[in-house]
Write a structure and sequence with these properties.
By secondary structure, the chain is mainly α. It is built from five helices and no strands.
Length: 139
């Protein structure tokens, strides 16, 4: 009887580990999607002829680099960046029409907090070359 309980316990532990791994993978994809969206938005903002263009370019570079690490799948990354560009363009057009500054501020805050999470958790997985290109924003 004791060996059956150990066997059942081992199966339960294995199932729990698989569940945790799947949850972590889903969280990485969710973060990757947010980072891709932010990278596209900052990329569009960097094209404006403003004082913040260079800052937006750095934010875009960091967001896209961290998104690539989060996805760890070039096909998924490529698909998501395409979707993100469409979403960012629609967002910019909406802002132009509505002049909703609060919506922009909320999106900016979400992007910055997502970038901070990414820098703290994903930077260590980057290649040295990527680390040299991507600025540390939250030292």
């Amino acid at each position: 009887m004791n060996s059956k309980i150990k066997y059942i316990f081992a199966i339960l532990v294995a199932l729990q580990m698989q569940h945790l791994a799947a949850a972590q993978d889903a969280e990485r994809v969710r973060i990757g999607e947010k980072l891709s969206d932010c990278g596209a938005l900052f990329g569009l903002l960097s094209q404006a002829n403003t004082k913040q263009a260079e800052f937006s370019k750095n934010l875009s570079t960091a967001s896209i680099a961290y998104a690539q690490v989060a996805f760890n799948d070039d096909n998924k990354f490529t698909q998501e960046t395409g979707r993100s560009m469409q979403k960012a363009s629609a967002f910019i057009n909406e802002l132009k029409e509505t002049n909703n500054k609060q919506r922009f501020e909320d999106k900016f805050k979400t992007c910055m907090s997502t970038l901070e999470i990414a820098e703290n958790n994903l930077r260590k997985e980057m290649s040295e070359t990527s680390k040299a290109i991507v600025p540390e924003l939250f030292k």
